[in-house]
Amino acid sequence: MLCGTIRPIRLKTSIFNVEASLETYNWVITTAFQYFNLLRNIKNG
């Protein structure tokens, strides 16, 4: 009985962790891209 109730919660947590990781990954990519554009603009300007 206990195992049956714990497993879905753990699955939910791992799915949440994956979503959080993807969000962080997207944020890092976006920030790096903006930073790169800023540097390029400074170089060209």
Automatic annotation (TrEMBL):
This is Uncharacterized protein.
